[in-house]
Amino acid sequence: MALTRALMQLRPIVAALGRHKVATLLIVLQVALTLAVASNALFIVATRIVHLSRPTSTDEAHLFIIRNGWKLGQHSAEIDANIRADLDTLRHVAGVRDAYSSQGFPLGGFKDDIILRLKLKPDQKTHGQLVTFFASDEHAVDTLGISLVAGRNFRRDEIIASGPNEKMSPASIIVTRSLADELFPDGSALGKTVYLPGGPAEIIGVLASLQGPLKQSERLDRFTVLVPMHYLDSAGVVYLVRADSTAMKPVIAATLKALQQRSDERIIDAKEGVVTMAQVRERAYADDHSVALLMSILSGMLLLATAGGIVGLSSFWVSQRRRQIGIRRSLGATTGDILSYFHSENFLIVSAGIVLGSLLAFVANLGLMHVYELPRMPPYVPLLGALLLWLLGQLAVWGPARYAAKVSPVVAIRTA
Predict the structure, then answer these.
(1) Sign of CA dihedral 81, 83, 85, 88
(2) Residue 40 and residue 43: Cα distance in Å, rounded?
């Protein structure tokens, strides 16, 4: 009975839409374009949010970085001695839990001295596995707040000194679990030998996770290696310091004062010389935040424009059909019948737009995949967009439909 009634109501709706082909087609196209654009925009927002939410696996709340430059004229031996003395000074500052030196840090950006290739054989002809690395020492694991899932930490006697123009030849390295699984998918990486540009190195430890200095490549960013090394760069190094408290301002001031008192043969920029890990994350993902905000605003404006179009068209049709509404009311149509009529009509129009819009959404996604290297959009994204548009359409038509249902039969027939 209900199905018969619905089919009987469908016929006059289709007939009425046929008499307003242009207006109906415009709303269908508007819904389709809204779904296509909003689905891809919101999908981009979701991927950006996931991207910028990736943890570095470090104790970000207690970590800060000092960019320490050297005055000209220092040799490798002097730099090494200064690094060791600086680290000893930093570790004795009140409020400092631990510290170490490196040439880079998580989300620190791209530099030539953070990438190397690992090979599994000394005579391997193919290119080795591309990885990012951090110069580290026995204090790096505790300073970063990361954890070993297998193996051991570096020993003090394993720390070498090497400059940017030298080929690294450490006896041991520590790798992330994702890199260990990539290199040795069939067994444990512990104890295995890999080959760096300077020679063989044994994998002595496996980290649960550690984000590399890059943020663009999600795959490469998890292939991180710790190398037991003091990086002797005449341009300077970075000191990573872990504080006991999240209130780091007094600790930062104390560390800078202690370093300056130990030696004035250094350059630390007053503005950019010290950054917290929280500031590093904020700056690294500033573009992602901007894109997510822009896409969210664009999607919201499109949805509002579509809702406004539905309200305007429905109001126009109500004014054009006052006589039809009056006749139906005089023949016994209830308020619910009139409301149902306009809501069903809107549902048909929006559904037609959703069918077309879903196709356009996937076509647009394929194009964006080639241009911006986006992942393939899952089917549930346009489905969620369709549900939102159906709901928006029903809410948008509710006001004009309610107005139509309140029209008196006599008034409608007289004024038509």
Answers:
(1) negative
(2) 5
